[in-house]
Specification:
By secondary structure, this protein is mainly beta. The chain has a single domain, classed as Jelly Rolls. The protein is built from two helices and twelve strands. It has a five-stranded antiparallel β-sheet with strand order 1-2-10-4-8, with helices on one face. The protein is globular and about 45 Å long.
């Protein structure tokens, strides 16, 4: 007679982790959110400075609704290796960007090559996705109208590098961590 030992059930499989959202999914999200007039209207607009409201983004992404008084902007910056998307919900924004990949470490000043500058106008409902090495600035260049936009980033922003620009010279000025821009 043989003895048998009880068989333990196999351990339960861990719940599947949610897949990271793609750039296209983030773009879909910011377009859908920008079209939600009630949500966009819930952002209190500050007449003197940008205002923002953090919202839940898809798949663990970080998302924001941002209000832009006339004449305001972000200054040149990147997103610390996160990719993302943004769309204008109301008004018009200008995005100026660099069509080149910058080294992330080991420099303080770079001379940019000719032809790297890009500019696009994003009026209500228009948006764009961008990769993890995107450097840009976003501006409300109007003189009398607020703009509102929706932004989403994945992974949530680990840092933002801020730059100054004089002609072809781009200079790293500051590295900000979460909490320093909220």
């Amino acid at each position: 007679m043989s003895s048998s030992s009880p068989v333990s059930p196999a351990p339960a499989e861990p719940a599947a982790l949610a897949a990271a959202p793609t750039e296209a999914q983030l773009l879909d999200f910011v377009h859908e959110t920008a079209a939600d007039a009630e949500l966009v209207a819930s952002l209190p607009l500050d007449p003197e400075g940008r205002s923002w409201l953090r919202i839940d983004g898809p798949g663990g992404s970080e998302a924001w609704i941002i209000g832009w008084p006339p004449g305001t902007g972000t200054g040149w910056h990147d997103h610390g290796g996160s990719y993302g998307a943004f769309a204008t919900a109301d008004g018009e924004l200008t995005e100026q960007s660099l069509a080149t990949r910058l080294p992330t470490e080991g420099w303080k000043t770079l001379e940019l090559a000719d032809g790297v500058d890009r500019e696009r106008q994003l009026s209500g409902g228009r948006g764009r996705a961008f990769g993890p090495h995107h450097v840009h600035q976003v501006l409300n260049e109007t003189t009398g109208r607020h703009a509102v936009s929706v932004h989403a980033y994945y992974p949530p922003l680990p840092l933002m590098r801020r730059y100054s620009r004089t002609g072809a010279l781009l200079r790293l000025e500051q590295v900000e961590r979460p909490g320093e821009w909220e």
